[in-house]
Amino acid sequence: MKAFVQDLIKAGQRGADSSTFALQAPAFPEPGQSETVANDTIPTYAYNWNISPLTPMGVAGVIWIPSASNIGENPADYAAELEVYAKSLPQIYGQKEIQFLYAQPTAAIVEGISAPKIPGAQSITFDQWPKSLKEMAVKMANLAQ
């Protein structure tokens, strides 16, 4: 990933359109693996661009607030996919454990969704998609205290 980012920087310095590189991004590292969730259903594109560059750093915790588009193609698989992601965090960051806080949509807004079983995690639920994350952020900050 580091070499790919360096290539993007050099291309930008030459005046190349860096948007043409997006589909050439490396697909490694993956955010988690499991026998119960197929590898091709675990999103890696956003992970590689947004999370992977941070993995050399330690973190105090991770907050996950999904949008309607983060639920995936099959809401029944969402809980298992989120469990895989949360379980992978300590290995990804090279830490013994990572605090995981998440917001869970109810079945009233996402038909077929169920709550994940993530040991040690804390969560809030919501029954309508937020127009602003401020209220949700305050609730999650209170969980972290």
List its traits:
145 residues, alpha/beta, 3-stranded parallel β-sheet, 3 strands
How much of the polypeptide forms β-strand, as a percent range? Answer: 5-15%
What structural class is derived from the secondary structure elements? alpha/beta
Helix content: 25-40%
Beta strand count: 3
**Unreliable parts:** none
Query: Quick check: average pLDDT?
Result: 79
Estimated radius of gyration: 17 Å
Summed up, the helix count is: 4
User: SSE order, as H and E?
Assistant: HHEHEEH
Spatial order of the strands forming the largest sheet: 1-2-3
Tertiary shape: globular
The main β sheet shows up as: 3 strands, parallel
- The separation of the N and C termini measures 34 Å
Give a description of the structure.
- The chain has 145 residues and is of the alpha/beta class.
- The protein has a domain at 58-144.
- The protein is 31% helix and 11% strand.
- It has 4 helices and 3 strands; from the N terminus they run ααβαββα.
- A 3-stranded parallel β-sheet has the order 1-2-3, covered by helices on one side.
- Helix 3 (78-93) links the parallel strand 1 and strand 2 (99-105).
- The protein is globular.
- The mean pLDDT is 79.
